[in-house]
Predict the structure.
Amino acid sequence: MIAIAIDENIDAIKELAKEATYPVLIDADHLFSDLYAVSNVPTVIWIDENDTIIRPNAVEVGSDTFTEFTGISCADHMNQVKAWVQEGVVPEDAQHAVEDFDQNEIAARLHFRIAANSLRAGLDEASEHHFEKAEELAPLDFTIVRAAMPLRGGNPFGEEFFELYEKYQTAGSPYHGIPRQQQD
Amino acid sequence: MSKTNNKTLTVLSDHTSVIEVFWENSKPYIKRDDVQEVLGWELKTEGLCKETTCVPLPSDLTSNSSEFVDLLILTEALGFSTVTDIESGFLAIDNFSSLRHSALSERKAPDIELPDLNGDKRFLSEWSDKKKLLVAFSSW
């Protein structure tokens, strides 16, 4: 397992990953998420020893802390992973073709990159302008909108997150990857 | 062309480059010598070249001996979309999309270099001979 933090807050990541026995990489500039079409976290991708993507982008979690909220249970996924590794069994949903980014999503990512870099350079006004543009162009992309919250002085676990999540669900939970079957 | 107000431009793509620039009519002109570093393609008389491929360019650009070239003509020739912020001196270039597109359709995992928690640079290809579970996560 390789964990990749789509995050520039290295201290927070070090804290989250302090017990990790597997490699943890830092994607502060969202290069991995842009290259692999990751639009939300956590996203899990199965890759075999020939670098073939066996099961593409899917939202899977490592514990059941948020199961009530998301309807996702982690046991199912872990059993599937075991079946793949031990018996070569691949779930049917692995056939899903991940939708590529459209022009707006691509532009959003360019604005986000400028926003994050201008923030680091102390150019607060420019930064906020580009975060706004990015949000306008990709309003339901969590790696754009939610990732920007702590950088813009907001709270990614507060009111604005719940508003984003509601908007997201109302729009049919668009995700670049295997769609989730929401449990009741 | 006269060089006025030479400034620096930070180009953000799959890597970051800080280079000299001068702006004319809101267009960034960069040094010929910096083209390869910025775009990963080399400016030759045949056009923009990478490995065995060359993309043709207007002849006034390839034959012109001026030290500075219009960067946006080059990015357009390569099909890279861009976002420019003149005042802040940033130019973001999308040189990911064609690689992402082919990776998604062919279901191939492209290699990428990222630092680990110790700050050491790692390539995903380091684990090429293993089955991998890539987990993208965050603190937000």
Summary: The longest helix of chain A spans residues 103-120. The beta strands of chain A are 2-5, 24-26, 43-47, 53-58.
